Amino acid sequence: MQIKVLSALWGYEQYNLLAWMDKVRLAGFDGFDTWLPAGPDELSQLLNYIDKHEMTFVAHQYQAEGNDFKEFKTSFLSSLKRCVDAHPLLINSHTGRDYFTLEQNLELVDIVENLGLQKNIPIVHETHRGRFAYSPAIMRHYFNANTEFKITADFSHWTCVSESMLDNFSEILDTAFTRTAHIHARIGYEEGPQVTDFRAPEWAYTTNKFFSWWDKIVDLRNADGLDVFTFTTEFGPFPYLPSLPYTRVPVVDLFEINCAMKDLLKARYSPVAAQSIRS
Predict the structure, then answer these.
(1) Does pTM surpass 0.90?
(2) Which of 165, 161, 166, 151 is nearest to 192 (CA)?
(3) Three-state secondary structure along 63-121?
(4) CB–CB of 221/228 below 8 Å?
(5) pLDDT by 10-residue block (mean), the chain, 279 residues
């Protein structure tokens, strides 16, 4: 199984799009996990670049709007169809709202399942705060209600929401591992969704925990016979990334942190290293 490590656009909006894509490719990333640019020229630039350089592409759907369920559903379907038209490897979806009812969010999940099957593109739901999959506790009900849908595992949100390292959610995690089709590789902790620098010794306990979860997921997908599995390094900018008061000067370099995570993922999940982990 090939492991592809992708870069987000989030946090790098200050770059010209082509300059950003060159920066990412030359740094050794395998592709991009990003939203579709609103303008047709930038969208063409993005998709043409991906095609030219044979990059892996995950489309990121987060733009669905509407605080009312009916409005959100209409916007959600429109945004998903736009992602489908870009022909990504998969679509990562910010699905629903945490205040929609179980039935309403499951209706959105059904829309995703039907569209994904119709277009033969996996559409997976990110475990994200504010969305239907915002916490491990609530996910028990969704997992029981629908045994088919897949997730993007961003467990940094779950550690933050539950204010724990998920020690009391082993059953939910086991189910989440089997449902994971994509990983957002950001390290969270009990009080927030992003540590300052995952390499620092004070964060070793949570970094080790996250990698133990990711190891299990990679092992499961490899056993499934999957050809390609994707990670996105998703350490984000201020206010995810702490900064010095009054200045907003970040305490670490965002791109350097994401590159360090990319290098670690590639080293750990190379075929030889992955075999060692499973042994």
Answers:
(1) yes
(2) 161
(3) CCCCCCHHHHHHHHHHHHHHHHHCCCCEEEECCCCCCCCHHHHHHHHHHHHHHHHHHCC
(4) no
(5) 96 92 97 94 96 98 94 97 97 98 97 95 98 98 96 98 98 98 98 97 98 98 96 96 94 97 96 55
